[in-house]
Amino acid sequence: MHRGFGDGLTWTLARTDHPNADTEQAASALLHCVARSTDPDAVGRNFSNAAIELALASYPGFTVTAPPAKASPYGVFTAAYLPQEDVPHDVVLADGERIPIPPPERTAALTGADEPTETDLVGAPPPPTPARSAPLGSVAGARSGDKGGSANLGVWARTPAGFVWLHDTLTVERLAELLPETAELA
């Protein structure tokens, strides 16, 4: 009976090795394989035993970071949106009292999110000064969030001049340079 990998195999190679390394650890790279299936027997102990036996017979110096093991559950996340009135918003006071906060009576559709309007660009850009390398957090606030396979990044300015600088400097292309692992993401 054929047991397939419903969600497939994912291979990643972390090139942690260095040429002419002084130690075996410095000469090693990490190869990770993740097998997903709705059938735990297809990706459990039988799969990991076979993979390790093949590697031990084929690669001198092969070691593992974990012994063969049975399959473990994994989740599949799908983003969904709910009306805000379906999610309770409560303030919880220090004594444990909960005060419900009703949803706003009026809201407006999000517009102009891609480009700021002239009223957003308050004030003139700061005069040019010598550039220096500094943490982004010294001039802007940031947060990231993830839910399963989806993630987002938010960056905001603390001042109008900072907004102009962020708008002109932190482009999608520049973000991909700063965080190369995001370059292929939307």
Strand and helix map with partners:
Blueprint: E1 8-14, E2 30-36, H1 40-43, H2 45-58, E3 90-92, E4 98-100, E5 140-147, E6 150-157, H3 160-169, H4 172-178
Antiparallel strand pairs: 1-2, 3-4, 5-6
Please tag this protein with its features.
186 residues; alpha+beta; two-stranded antiparallel ribbon; two-stranded antiparallel sheet; 4 helices; flat
Question: Can you offer a commentary on this structure?
Answer:
The protein is α+β, with helices and mostly antiparallel strands and 186 residues long. It is built from four helices and six strands. Among the domains are: 8-58, no CATH class; 111-182, no CATH class. The strands form three sheets. The chain has a two-stranded antiparallel ribbon with strand order 1-2. The model has no long low-confidence stretch (mean pLDDT 80). The chain has helices at 40-43, 45-58, 160-169, 172-178, and strands at 8-14, 30-36, 90-92, 98-100, 140-147, 150-157.
